[in-house]
Amino acid sequence: MPDTIQILDPSAEDIPEEKGLNANLPSLRGKTIGLLENRKYHADSFLHELKEVLVNDYGADKVIYATKFSYSAPCATETLESLAQECDVVIHGVAD
């Protein structure tokens, strides 16, 4: 039996950089936001909560929710084209 145990620290080594919105989209107020779920465990819960935040805190006018067929497969072209036509911005959410 070893005399020591190696403990790994799972926290990030770098401090994450905070970025604001893109200059082309300075506000989400009145915008249509697309949420694309990848079907991973808890992605739906996270994105449904995010929808509430986008509408209530950031003033998004509408949120369109779409899902991929499978997390391991590319998103259907029709889904991507529909989101691109209907939305001002799309968020692809992943979770586990």
Quick recap:
This protein has 96 residues and is of the alpha/beta class. It is built from 2 helices and 3 strands, in the order βαβαβ.
Characterise this structure.
The chain has helices at about 45-55, 75-85; strands spanning about 30-35, 60-65, 90-95. It has about 100 residues and is an alpha/beta fold. The chain has a domain at about 30-95. The protein has a three-stranded parallel beta sheet, sandwiched between helices. The protein is extended and about 60 Å long. The model has no long low-confidence stretch (mean pLDDT about 85).
Keywords:
25% helix, 96 residues, alpha/beta
Q: How are the secondary structure elements laid out?
A:
Blueprint: E1 32-37, H1 43-56, E2 62-67, H2 77-86, E3 89-93
Parallel strand pairs: 1-2, 1-3
The separation of the N and C termini measures: 34 Å
Shape: extended
How would you state the average pLDDT, rounded? 87
Number of strands: 3
* Helix percentage range: 25-40%
Order of helices and strands: EHEHE
Describe the strand arrangement of the main beta sheet, using strand numbers: 2-1-3
Largest sheet: 3 strands, parallel
Low-confidence stretches: none
Radius of gyration: 18 Å
Q: Helical region count? A: 2
Q: Beta-strand level of the residues, as a percent range?
A: 15-25%
What structural class do the secondary elements suggest?
alpha/beta
